[in-house]
Design brief:
This protein has 24 helices and 24 strands. It is globular. The structure holds 2-(butylsulfanyl)adenosine (IVH).
Length: 666
C-alpha cells in the first residue's frame, strides 16, 4: 500500500467507524458486533502505524487515549459559563415565569415559548470546534476560566471529534459529561470499598481530571449537549439548535419540550418526576430556558446566573418503611458498622432493603429503635440513608439497638480506638470477616487484579480455613479447589492461572494490596519509591517514613506497626516463597532472560557483589529473589560462610551455584 492508497483507506475506515460509533452510542441501534467493530478499528490503527504522518487528532483511533498530562493548562471561555439559579418550589417557577413575561412586555415583546429540558447530573464542559474539528475541550472552572482537558475529552465516544456535515468557523457546544448508572456501578464494583465513589457525578468529575487519558477512556463516560453557539444565523431558536446538535452527531437526550404556557411547564415537571428513574443516567431536575435566543440579551444576567433560565430541582426522594433489625458488619480493618435491615421499599427506581447507619453515634442521634417506622432518603448519594424516625408511629413493641460487646463474626470482645467513634474487633489475625475483607481487597482490580477470585469463593476458602492470609492463596492446589461448591475443574484451573499471573504484579501494587491501614494507592507509590523492597520497608524507622513526601506520622506509625507484626513477617515469607515481587523492578530493563522464571536465593557473603547488586542482576535477567529455601526455589547462590539455608537447599536437592558459576550464568 502506498501513501495515497493508505490515505484513501484511512478516510474510508474513519467514516465507517464514526458511523458505527454513532449507531452504537447515540442511536442505540448497533449494526456490528463488538468484535467486528474492534476489527475495523484495528485495521485503522495498523495502517496509521505504518503511515504515522496520516494520523490526525480527529481519528477514531485517538479515542483510546494514551497521552499523560502533568498539569492542565488554563483557558478562558469565549463567553462566561454561567450557572443556573435553582429552586425546589413550583411557586418560584411560576414567579420566574411571570417575571420573565413582565420583563419582556416592558421591552414590547409578546408571549414567548420556553423550552423545558432535563437537568443532567454530571459535569459541565465546553467544546470548541474549528471548521468542524474538535480543537478544545474545557471544564467550567470558575465560569470565566477552566482547564483544557482536550486529551481526556477525546476519549468520550459520544463526543464527535468531527461535526457531521461539517461547519465553517468556530462553533462552541456545551453540555454535560456523566456516567451512565450501569457504567458507574461497574466502575465502583471494580474498586475496593474505601475507594468507591459516592455517586456518578463525583466519579465523572474525578475521571475528567485524571492525568492518564488511557485510564479516562476506560472510565466510560457519556455526553449530552444542550448549548450551541457559532451558527451563521444567530436568530435560530434554542429548540432548533437542539435539532442542529443532533444533526452534528451529538446526543441531546431528546427529552425536551416546547412549552407555550405555565401549564405545559408544570406538566413536564410532573411527568418527569417519576419517569426520570427509568433513564439510564441520573437527572436531578428540569431546566427552563427562553426559546428565543435573540431575546436573552435583553433580560441579561445577575452575577452568576442568567434571567432567561431557571433550574427546578426535584426534592430528594423519600420513602417510609420499617426497621426490622440492625446488624453489625465487620470490615477488613475490623471496624464494626451498624446496618439497618429494612422492610423492602421502592425508592428512586430501585428496591431498598438495607442502609448503612455509619456508626453508633448516628443511631443515637436518630434515636433509632428496632421496629420503628423510619424515613429513608436518596439524594445525590447512591446509597440511601435513614434520615429520621416517625415517632408518632412508634409501635409498642420497639426494642433498643444493643451495641454488641463481642464481634458478631468471631466473638472476640470489641475494643475502641482512641481517635475513632466506633468499635472494632481486635482479633485481626483470625476474625473470618477481616480475613475475607483482606483477601477481597488483595484480589480487587486496583490491587492484584485476580479476576476469578469473587466473594462467594473467598467466603468458602476462608470458612474452611484453606486461606488464613493472602499468602495461602498461592499454595492452593487444584484438587482442594475442585471440591468446593460451584467450582469445577475448569474454574479451579482458571483461578490457579489468575493467581499465577498475579505473581508478576509489581511491588507498588503488592504494597497497596496488603491493605495496610492508611496506605492507599498514592501512599503505596511513595512508599515503594522510598523503600524499594519489603526488606527495606521493614528496616525503615518511623522517622524515616515520616520524611517521605505526603506521608505523615499517622501513616508512618501504621506501616511500622504492620510490618513489625509476626503475622506480617510470616506473610512476607509466604509471598516471597510464592515468587511475588517483594521489591521494585519497575524500572529495570531486561538485559537477558538467563534467569527467566527462576526464583533465586542468596546465602552467605559474595566477594564481588553486595546482596543488593546481585539481586538487581538477577531481576534484570528475568529472575526473582526469595528469602527462604523451599523445594520450589530455583537456585541458591552460596557465598562464604553460608549456613543453614545452604544445608537445607542441599537436603531438598535445590541447585546450588558458587559465585563464579553465578557470574558465568549472568
Ligand atoms: S444550561 C446558563 N441545561 O446545571 C445556562 N445546564 O447550574 C447554563 N445542567 O453548569 C447551563 N443539565 O452543569 C443547562 N439541560 C441543561 C442542564 C444544565 C444540567 C447543569 C450544568 C450547569 C448547571 C447550572
Amino acid at each position: 500500500m502506498d501513501i495515497i492508497q493508505a490515505a484513501e483507506r484511512i478516510a474510508e475506515l474513519r467514516k465507517e467507524i464514526e458511523c458505527h460509533n454513532h449507531l452504537y452510542y447515540i442511536d442505540a441501534k448497533p449494526e456490528l458486533s463488538d468484535y467486528e467493530f474492534d476489527k475495523l478499528l484495528q485495521q485503522l490503527v495498523d495502517i496509521e502505524r505504518q503511515f504515522p504522518d496520516l494520523v490526525t487528532p480527529e481519528s477514531p483511533s485517538q479515542r483510546v487515549g494514551g497521552a499523560i498530562t502533568k498539569e492542565f493548562v488554563s483557558v478562558i471561555h469565549r463567553e462566561p459559563m454561567l450557572s443556573l439559579s435553582n429552586t425546589y418550589s413550583l411557586g418560584e417557577v411560576e414567579e420566574f415565569y411571570n417575571r420573565l413575561k413582565k420583563l419582556l412586555a416592558l421591552e414590547g415583546v409578546g408571549e414567548q415559548e420556553m423550552v423545558a429540558e432535563l437537568k443532567f447530573d454530571g459535569v459541565a464542559i465546553s467544546l470548541l470546534y474549528r471548521d468542524g474539528l474538535l480543537v478544545r475541550g474545557a471544564t467550567r472552572g470558575d465560569g470565566m476560566q477552566g482547564d483544557d482537558i482536550t486529551v481526556n475529552i477525546r476519549t468520550i465516544p459520544t463526543i464527535p471529534l468531527k461535526l457531521r456535515g461539517g461547519a465553517d468557523g468556530e462553533v462552541e457546544v456545551r453540555g454535560e459529561v456523566f456516567m451512565r448508572k450501569e457504567d458507574f456501578d461497574q466502575l465502583n464494583e471494580s474498586r475496593p470499598e474505601e475507594d468507591r465513589f459516592a455517586n456518578p457525578r463525583n466519579a465523572t468529575a474525578g475521571a475528567l481530571k485524571l492525568q492518564d487519558s488511557a485510564e479516562v477512556a476506560r472510565r466510560k463516560m457519556s455526553f449530552i449537549a444542550y448549548y450551541l453557539k457559532g451558527l451563521s444565523d444567530e436568530s435560530i431558536t434554542h429548540f432548533t439548535r437542539l435539532d442542529y446538535l443532533e444533526k452534528f452527531g451529538f446526543s441531546t437526550g431528546r427529552h425536551y419540550r416546547l412549552c407555550r404556557e405555565l401549564k405545559d411547564i408544570n406538566e413536564f415537571i410532573a411527568e418527569w418526576s417519576e419517569q426520570r428513574w427509568m433513564l439510564p443516567y441520573e437527572t436531578d431536575g428540569v431546566v427552563l430556558k427562553l426559546n428565543a435566543v435573540t431575546l436573552r440579551d435583553k433580560l441579561g444576567a445577575t452575577a452568576k446566573s442568567p434571567r432567561w433560565a431557571i433550574a427546578y430541582k426535584y426534592p430528594a426522594q423519600q420513602a417510609q418503611t420499617v426497621l426490622h433489625d440492625v446488624i453489625f458488619q465487620v470490615g477488613r480493618l475490623g471496624s464494626i458498622t451498624p446496618v439497618a435491615e429494612l422492610e423492602p421499599v421502592q425508592l428512586a427506581g430501585s428496591t431498598v432493603s438495607r442502609s448503612t447507619l455509619h456508626n453508633f453515634d448516628e443511631i443515637e442521634r436518630l434515636g433509632l429503635m428496632i421496629h420503628d417506622r423510619v424515613i429513608i432518603e436518596k439524594s445525590g448519594e447512591v446509597i440511601p440513608k435513614v434520615i429520621s424516625v416517625v415517632l408518632e408511629a412508634r409501635p409498642s413493641d420497639v426494642l433498643p439497638v444493643v451495641v454488641p460487646s463481642h464481634c458478631p463474626e468471631c466473638g472476640t470482645p470489641l475494643a475502641k480506638r482512641e481517635s475513632e467513634v466506633g468499635y472494632h474487633c481486635p482479633n485481626e489475625e483470625e476474625c473470618p470477616a477481616q480475613i475475607r475483607g483482606r483477601v477481597l481487597h488483595f484480589a480487587s482490580r486496583n490491587a492484584m487484579d485476580i479476576k476469578s477470585l469473587g466473594k462467594a469463593l473467598v467466603d468458602q476458602l476462608v470458612a474452611i480455613k484453606l486461606v488464613k492470609d493472602v499468602g495461602d492463596l498461592y499454595f492452593l492446589q487444584e484438587p482442594q479447589l475442585e471440591s468446593l461448591e460451584r467450582m469445577g475443574r475448569k474454574s479451579a484451573q482458571n483461578l490457579l492461572r489468575a493467581l499465577d499471573e498475579s505473581r508478576a504484579q509489581n511491588y507498588e501494587r503488592l504494597l497497596y494490596s496488603l491493605g495496610i491501614r492508611h496506605v492507599g494507592r498514592a501512599t503505596a507509590r511513595q512508599l515503594s519509591q522510598a523503600c524499594p523492597s519489603l526488606d527495606a520497608l521493614i528496616l525503615a524507622t518511623e522517622e524515616q517514613l515520616s520524611n517521605i513526601a505526603d506521608i505523615g506520622p499517622v501513616v508512618a506509625r501504621s506501616v511500622i506497626g504492620y510490618v513489625a507484626k509476626p503475622s506480617a513477617q510470616s506473610l512476607f515469607q509466604k509471598l516471597g516463597d510464592a515468587g511475588l515481587q517483594l521489591g521494585t523492578s519497575a524500572s529495570t530493563v531486561l538485559i537477558n532472560s538467563n534467569f527467566e522464571g527462576l526464583t533465586v536465593l542468596f546465602t552467605g557473603a559474595l566477594d564481588r557483589y553486595t546482596r543488593n547488586q546481585a539481586s538487581e542482576l538477577v531481576i534484570e535477567r528475568g529472575g526473582r529473589i526469595v528469602e527462604s529455601v523451599s523445594k520450589k526455589t530455583g537456585l541458591v547462590v552460596a557465598g562464604h560462610d553460608a549456613g543453614s539455608k545452604l544445608d537445607k537447599a542441599l537436603k531438598l536437592g535445590v541447585k546450588v551455584l558458587s559465585e563464579g558459576e553465578f557470574e558465568g550464568m549472568l
